[in-house]
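**User:**
Everyone, produce one record:

**Assistant:**
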Amino acid sequence: MRSRKWIKWTVLAAIPALFAVLYVIFSQTKSLADTAVRCFSRPVRDVLGAVSSVVPFSVMETVYVAAGLWLLIHIGRTIYFAIRKRLGLKRLLIRAGALLLVIAYLFSGYLSLWSIDYRSSSFSEKEDFRVSGVEKEALFDAAEYFTRKAMELADTVKRDENGLFAEDIGEYLSACASLYDEMEARFPSLKATSRRPKQMVFSELMSVTGFTGVYFPFTGESNVNVNEPAAFLPATAAHELAHQRGVYSEEEANFIGVTASVLSDIPAYRYSGYVTGSLYLMNAVYRASPEKWRELRSRFEGGFLADWLYNSEYWQRYESKVSAASEKVYDAYLKANGQEAGIQSYGACVNHLVAYYELGGYE
């Protein structure tokens, strides 16, 4: 009987170990990683995404809550029985082993379903769209263009009594099925089924930690923080949908999300794409030339200006030690996965935006 238990535990422990070994093997070269992504991680995530899309709520959040409750109960019961001396050393080790086994499965699952993507070919490599630095004048021109277009489109979207973007979230999230049609025609590697992003119940927590959205590979879901300034939310949804299509780089997902939004014929996305692109480009302009930034900033007006000011006010409200710590952790995570710019990757999309603007991609 004991031998059977040991066999069971050995088999259970061998499975995550096997996936970890396979990850090490297939992450050695981009060619091998591409094969693993094409034949395993991407198809599995697509299936998981199809299953989780059946329900309207975020399965990711449900998993986190269930996992948290299970962990608290497991640790609580272990401590209780240990104090009451109802748990011998052997049983204590078994319970600790069970917890470690769960962690091993989660870690190996993460390696196999998402981390391997970081070792594969990037969007830029697949589409031969490599960019490096950009000239200042090109940056200024692109920033001026995005800002002007955002102001022109400001009146094409619904607004509330304060003049802020007020399009119905449910409507434009439901319309995301056609959002990537033009992008797929221009960049075939992005071809996939767009599944509606989930509106997060714990959006307030996301704002506290400084996040606007998250892609969860274990359920294949795109999740968005519905509390973020509304004008930027459609582009955030487009960004998370880029991850759903296998784009792992935050820099590239930002470029793709903005571009997909701008090229869309859905007013909420078009405006949001230009507003978000303007924000990234203007931040880069400020670093390059504060004088030029002030010149462009002086032209802001109307609904665009209202959305811009509210966005700044909103995120200043959440600046804290918690958000700073969260940024440091996420920065370390991104760098550990080969994104050298870390959290700055989000703003690094500027090079792609400017390069595509110069190619006439937004005309």
About this structure: The CA atoms of residues 188 and 205 lie 36 Å apart.
